[in-house]
Amino acid sequence: MSSNNAAVVEIAQTAGKFSSSIVLQTDNKYIDVKSILGLFTTLVSHKDYELHVHGSDAEEAKVTMQEVFAKHGLQIVVVTD
């Protein structure tokens, strides 16, 4: 398993712990972060990603997701509306 696979699995599992909607945007694509398949086809390092989080536990989800992405060396910008 490559490190990217490990990142995808951990990101999806972590996102799954939250009730909030967690969506990753890159270019013109929107990917549900809870979808392992969606992440596999999208997640490559050295790209710019925006993370959109909406829901009752959004604040906690934003912090936790930033930590998981950073742990795997992926750059994201959390979008606050």
TrEMBL record:
Supply the alphabetized keyword list.
Answer: Sugar transport, Transport
Taking every annotated instance into account, which residue ranges of this chain make up the domain HPr? 10-70
Q: Which InterPro entries match?
A: HPr-like (IPR000032), HPr-like_sf (IPR035895)
Domain of life the protein comes from: Bacteria
Keyword Lipoprotein attributed: no
The name under which this protein is listed is PTS sugar transporter
Instruction: Identify the species of origin.
Output: Paenibacillus glacialis
